[in-house]
Write a structure and sequence with these properties.
This protein folds into 2 domains: 10-49 and 58-135, no CATH class; 152-342, no CATH class. The protein is built from 16 helices and 8 strands. The chain has helices at 18-29, 71-85, 107-112, 129-135, 152-166, 175-185, 189-195, 201-220, 231-251, 260-264, 272-280, 297-304, 309-315, 332-342, 347-376, 382-389, and strands spanning 10-13, 36-38, 45-47, 92-95, 122-124, 295-296, 319-321, 326-329. The chain has a 3-stranded parallel beta sheet with strand order 1-4-5, with helices on one face. Strands 6-8-7 form a 3-stranded antiparallel beta sheet. A two-stranded antiparallel sheet has the order 2-3. Helix 9 (231-251) packs antiparallel against helix 15. Pfam families: WHD_AAA_fung (PF24913).
Length: 390
């Protein structure tokens, strides 16, 4: 794409509705599907696009037009037409591919995976693990690259240069300030872009941590002595905070503290050969374990005791699951939130209280179900037993 200045490249944003995805694909490829619709006045069919291109005689025999079979067939027609029209390799990029998750219709298998038979190198961008899980089933030449955050050095380069341009009269951002900012929010560009627009970058990073902390509480906050109507919600929260607490312990270990030696140990490619090797091995901006606390998918299941919640946490951008089935906080910002919450004095007491309350409600419901079953059954008296014996 860089070599030919993105000539012949198409990009679209995926959608969970196949009809919307079909329209976006047609717009990206400049392809008209020759849709058929009804006129609002007389109810007769009329083509919404070029009437001269309608070459189907199915309407003469009161049969459905093959083009009315649904959006999936239209997508296949568009890709087949593109295969005929293009002789050169055509890169196809689909942003937000996780939004086209259709488990009941196998949308990834029937549509998106079909791109591999048409294009030499389609590109799918997603931040959810289930996209990789679905594509991996039938992919034979798929190569996965992780788009990681900036390293501490790159963060300092970005903050110092951008802050100097926005605030020429302000003192320059020191490496110590950049390291503090990176420790709080990491090297994600959308977060750094918010921080660098403030005069005090450290205070701005702390404000982001406070905002993210309140958002997490609004999503998964623990409620002590909660009502039985919200038991399912608190079950998700309590199981999730077990994993968050484990991440906080990993980040609070003595070897996890950021130091100049650890920052200098982050290896960055220098020449083109090292860059190509890092790209092939998916090691671009990879951090050492001291700066990147993580657990395996199996360990996360054991810690949470409810593996089905991992998918929801990944969709909410609270945790992240990579192609090697490693589970880590979605960002350094989220890790800072985990550390602050776990450091609260009454956190462990709250967590234990919520888990005990969930167990208590479940026990009461089991007893109620058992009592209802006994009431619905036949009441047997000694006289009835005597009568049966006779």
């Amino acid at each position: 794409m860089l070599a030919n200045q993105a000539d012949g490249c198409a990009m679209l944003e995926a959608h969970e509705d196949a009809e919307v995805f079909r329209l976006r694909l047609g717009k990206a490829l400049d392809f008209e599907f020759n849709e058929v619709s009804y006129l609002p006045t007389c109810g007769e069919k009329a083509a919404t696009h070029d009437l001269a291109s309608q070459d189907s005689f199915a309407g003469l025999f009161q049969r459905r037009d093959p083009r009315e079979a649904g959006p999936i067939l239209d997508i296949e027609r568009a890709l087949a037409k593109l295969e005929k029209a293009s002789r050169d390799p055509v890169p196809q990029e689909a942003r937000a591919a996780h939004r086209s998750h259709r488990p009941e219709r196998s949308f990834h298998q029937g549509c998106i995976c079909g791109l591999y038979s048409f294009f030499p190198f389609p590109v799918f961008l997603s931040d959810n693990f289930h996209t990789y899980r679905h594509l991996k089933r039938s992919a034979t030449r798929m190569h996965t690259l992780s788009i990681r955050d900036l390293t501490p050095r790159e963060t300092h380069t970005f903050l110092s240069g951008t802050h100097e341009r926005l605030f020429p009269s302000a003192p320059p951002v020191t490496p110590e300030q950049s390291l503090t900012v990176w420790d709080l929010i990491g090297g994600r560009l959308n977060l750094l872009a918010k921080v660098v627009k403030r005069m005090d970058v450290e205070e701005a990073a702390k404000d982001l941590v406070s905002e993210e902390k309140e958002w997490l509480h609004s999503k998964l906050g623990l409620i002590v002595d909660h009502d039985d109507d919200v038991m399912d919600e608190q079950k998700v929260s309590s199981c999730s905070f077990l994993l968050f607490q484990h991440f906080a312990k990993l980040a609070s270990a003595p070897e996890a503290h950021i130091s100049a030696a650890i920052v200098q140990s982050v290896e960055e490619p220098v020449d083109e050969a090292e860059k190509s090797e890092a790209l092939e091995l998916d090691l671009v901006n990879a951090l050492p374990d001291e700066l990147d606390p993580k657990v395996t998918y199996r360990e996360a299941r054991e810690i949470m005791t409810r593996p089905d919640y991992i998918v929801d946490l990944d969709a909410w951008h609270i945790i992240n699951v990579d192609q090697h089935h490693n589970v880590r906080p979605d960002s350094r910002l989220m890790l800072s939130v985990f550390r602050e919450i776990a450091a609260e004095e009454d956190f462990q007491e709250k967590l234990d209280s919520v888990r005990d309350r969930v167990d208590e409600i479940e026990h009461e419901k089991k007893e109620e179900r058992g009592a209802d079953d006994d009431d619905d059954g036949d009441t047997k008296t000694p006289a009835d037993a005597e009568e049966r014996l006779v």
